[in-house]
Amino acid sequence: MRIRAVSSRLEAFALTRPYAIAQQAPVSEVDNVIVRLEALAVPTGWGAASPAEGVTGETVASCREALSE
User: Fold this and answer.
1) What is the pLDDT of residues 21-47, one digit of tens each?
2) At 9, which helix (H) or strand (E)?
3) Alpha carbon distance 54, 32 (integer Å)
4) What value does the CA radius of gyration of the chain take, rounded to a whole number of Å?
5) What is the pTM of this model?
6) Residue 57, helix vs strand vs coil
7) What's the confidence (pLDDT) of residue 9?
8) What residues does 35 pair with on adjacent strands?
9) For 44, what's the count of Cα atoms within 13 Å in the CB-facing half-sphere?
10) DSSP per residue over 29-51, as a string?
11) d(Cα 39, Cα 62) in Å, to the nearest integer?
């Protein structure tokens, strides 16, 4: 497969119901890194990551950095 183009963007997704974790401010939206991959001979592919440092150890910055390589 030959890749023609790759792009990513940051998008905040609103939650249908905010939630709170003990002694923290309520969360009403989450950041997602959206990835678009265009190949020469196949349909465009889409992916997303919702990094949460306390859960996965990943941050938005680390996702963006990994994608920039």
Assistant:
1) 888 889 899 899 999 999 888 888 999
2) strand 3-19
3) 15
4) 15
5) 0.73
6) coil
7) 92
8) 8, 47
9) 7
10) EEEEEEEEEEESSS--EEEEE--
11) 24
